What we know:
The chain is mainly alpha-helical. Helices cover 94% and strands 0% of the residues. This is 4382_t:CDS:1.
Amino acid sequence: MVEDQEVMAENQEVVVEDQRVMVEDQEVIVKNQEVVAEDQEIMIKDQKVIIV
């Protein structure tokens, strides 16, 4: 069972890399949201914490 878990861990690392790419796209959207509303800026800060 330990060996199977190691394989799953490797797959999860690949998923993390994909998430980093999505994060970059969100940063571009965030810039547009800042122009739209100040309330959204507070939500954006929470997302940055989740990304970390």
